[in-house]
Each structure stands twice: as C-alpha cells, then as structure tokens.
Amino acid sequence: MKLNQKEVQLITELKNQEQLCVQKYDFYAAQAKDPELKNLFKKLLKREQNHFDMLENLLNGTVPQIKNKTPEAVKYEPKATHAGDQKSKEFDKFLCTDIIATEKYVATTYNNDLFYFVSTDVRNVLNAIMTDEQNHAEMIWKYKVANKMAA
Ligand SMILES: [Fe+2]
Ligand SMILES: [Fe+2]
User: Fold this and answer.
1) 51-79 per-position pLDDT tens digit
2) Residue 18 Cα, ligand 1 centroid: separation in angstroms?
3) pLDDT in tens, 84-118
4) Which ligand has an atom closest to residue 139 CA?
5) How far is the CA of 24 from the centre of ligand 2 (A)?
C-alpha cells in the first residue's frame, strides 16, 4: 500500500495528535486523585499508544488488522469510587471534562481526514480509530455520571 503526499501529511499529523493523547493520559493519570480514574487514564493511554503504532504501520506501508470487538465502553460499569472532598472531586471532574473535549476533537479530525484517502482499507482503519475515540469519551462520561460529576 502506497500513500500519496497528502495522505502521508495527514497521517503524520494524526500521529502527532496521538502522541499528545499519550502524553495527556500519562500526565492526567499522575494527577488524578481517585485511583479508579488513574487506572482508567492508564488504560486509555495504552489504547492511544496502540493508535500511534497503527499510524506508524500505515506510514511504513502496512495496513494494520482491525479486530472486531465489543466496544470497551459497553462493558465499562464504573461505581461511585471517588472518596475525596469536594475540591479534589472538582479537580478530577476538570480532568475528565478536558480529556473528553480532546477525544471529541480527535474523533472529529479522523472523521474529516478519512475523506481524503484513496484506499478503502485505510479508510476502515481510520474509521475504527475514530470509533475508539468515541468510546474513550463514553467511558470517561460513564465515570463522571457514576461519580456525580456530570452536571
Ligand atoms: Fe487515539
Ligand atoms: Fe482516545
């Protein structure tokens, strides 16, 4: 599979975006007060690293395999785990709201970019990653609802 110049440019920008997501989840996992939220951020960090690797594969001419799996958000059933005071809860709420905004932005970027791609296989990969990003946002949203941070 050979990408044209515009496609290479778009994938490279998406890769930078994924790099930023990895760094954000790493930073936020370190900052979060609730251990459950720390774990969620650490888990999503690995998913973003996987996206980064998939894009790297595309740049190297290999189309990564897409696994047909149940979306993680379906299985994620968070409980009200936040044991901190109001201030620490507000802090974690901010982290959640901010990273959801990032996920929304990244998902939208994938949706816009994939229209420029020639290969159906590559479009399918980008579409799968976009769906993952929606799922990440949904998991964090579920955490917010369970912990009464969603208002
Ligand atoms: Fe991602
Ligand atoms: Fe994501």
Assistant:
1) 999 999 999 999 999 988 889 999 999 99
2) 5
3) 999 999 999 999 999 999 999 999 999 999 999 99
4) 2
5) 10
- Give the distance (Å) from ligand 1 centre to CA of residue 85: 32
> What separation in Å is there between the alpha carbon of 69 and the centre of ligand 2?
16
How much distance in Å is there from the Cα of 44 to the middle of ligand 2? 7
- CB atoms closer than 10 angstroms to residue 75: 8
**Model-level pTM greater than 0.90?**
yes
Catalogue all structural domains in the chain, each as residue range(s) with its CATH number. Answer: 5-146 (1.20.1260.10)
Check if the beta carbon of residue 100 is closer than 8 Å to that of residue 141.
Answer: yes
Give the count of beta carbons closer than 10 Å to the beta carbon of residue 141: 18
- Tokens matching residue 45: 């960090």
